[in-house]
Every structure is written in structure tokens, then in C-alpha cells.
């Protein structure tokens, strides 16, 4: 089992960051890797169990299922159902916490997965840098944060 | 039940910040409000269940019991046994979480307690901004931000 944990501090109130992140169907509006997103069967994107279908910038598709969503804890979890890359048993957790000192936000994004033998380090680097850290930077520059 | 939540960021790796705060008998070494501290009955300061007897610089005396300590998750939970604060069922946790972006540390200090309703707002402010943020500010000064 590979574990990836990335975290950052955003210079914005936690409610504002959560307002962007909580939409399970909204990642195509801020994450550079995601070209298009839709929820299958027209379910609401905050219905636990709903499945989102991503089209990535390279044209490949993946499907992910929302496992938990909490507006109280400002957390959500999801798993990969279908993916063109060798990430198996992938479950990810996103968690926001307020930094009361300065009205900022602590954001942690972590996952566990298995992959083909020998590809653990490459997959961990890809997920950590191209998905999580790239997501941090995209939100840091998001116009809604400054609103 | 009154709740206090105070959090901050210190510009140092979590392992270094943890090394400074994990000693249950070590408050005088890093918290500016605490003058002296000892562990009762000569027990080790990381023995869960041990009691620290300490004095604030203003002369107040407190006894607190260590309820939980984890070097893996970097948290410390304790309760107040005796204090002049007028609180009951007071349980607090100091928790550190690494910020991977920049090798910094996210610190949370939380407390729950019962008190007379008319004193709740004052106590929440004193504990949250005085004791907890006061400790964070001292850590930020020590670690340079």
C-alpha cells in the first residue's frame, strides 16, 4: 500500500476554500489536469455515492465515487472506479481546517493505493505533485478566493 | 459545554516543534505564562496518567493530568485537576500536523469544559487568545516565524 500525504496553508478563510472544493463536480473549473467533469445519472454532486466522470487534458477518462462529504468537518473522501493509469484500491481524503491565527486555511489531501510492482515511487510522485500540489497552486490563484 | 479552538502555523518541521512541546513537564521552557513545573511522585513526564503541578508567572497554581500522548500522531491530551479558573471537566489537546508545502507545522490547541454560563465568553477568550495563542506566539518567536 502506498500512502501520499500533501498539505499546504492558503491565505484565505476556510469557508471560502470549502465553497470551491465541496462541489464534487467542480474540479474541471479549477484543477489544471481536468478538462471536463459530469455526474453520472444526473445525480446531485453532494449525494454521497454519486459518481463523477472526468475527462483529463490528454483525453483519457476516469470515474470516481464520492464516499463521504461533511460540511461540518469540511472533509470529503472518494475512490477511483475506473482509471487509465495503474492506481488500484485508490481512496483519497480531503480535509480543511481553520488557521485561527490569521484567518487562513490548512488543507490536507491524502490517499492510499496499490499499483504494479516497481511503480510505487513514480505513481506516488505523480499523484502528489501533478494532482495534489498542482491543485493547491490552482486554488491559490483562484479568483473566488480573493472575492 | 464551552469549546475553544486555536490554530496557527510555525515555520519549522513538525518533528522539531514536537520535540519542544512534547515534554509534559516542559512548559516553563517554552510557554511564557508558566514559571515552574514538576511531575508529582517522581514519575516520568511521558507516563500517561502522570500529574504536573505548575505555577503561572501570576502566581496561580494548576494541577493537570496527562491523558494521552502520541509521538506518532504528535498530540498530547490532558485534563485539569485543580485550578483557580472555575472550570470543570476541562480536557484539552495540543496537536501538531506537518505542512508538507514548506516543511512547516500546523498546530491546533483545543479545549472543552463546563463553567458558569456568565463566565463562558471570558474564559474562552482568555484560554484561546491568552494561553493557547500566547504559546503559539512564543513558538513562532523561537522558530523565527
Distance between the amino and carboxyl termini of chain B: 33 Å
Percent helix of chain B, as a range, is 10-25%
- CATH fold node name of chain B: Alpha-D-Glucose-1,6-Bisphosphate, Chain A, domain 4
Query: Residue-averaged pLDDT of chain B, rounded?
Result: 97
**Number of helical regions of chain A:** 3
Let me know the CATH homologous superfamily of chain B. Answer: START domain
The helix/strand series of chain A, from N terminus to C terminus, equals EHEEEEEEHH
DSSP strand content of chain B? 35-45%
Strand order of the largest sheet of chain B: 1-7-6-5-4-3-2
Mean pLDDT across the residues of chain A is 96
CATH architecture of chain B: 2-Layer Sandwich
The CATH superfamily title of chain A:
START domain
Structural class of chain B: alpha+beta
Number of domains of chain A: 1
Class of chain A, according to the CATH hierarchy? Alpha Beta
Specify the biggest β-sheet of chain A. 7 strands, antiparallel
The quaternary state of the protein chains shown equals: heterodimer
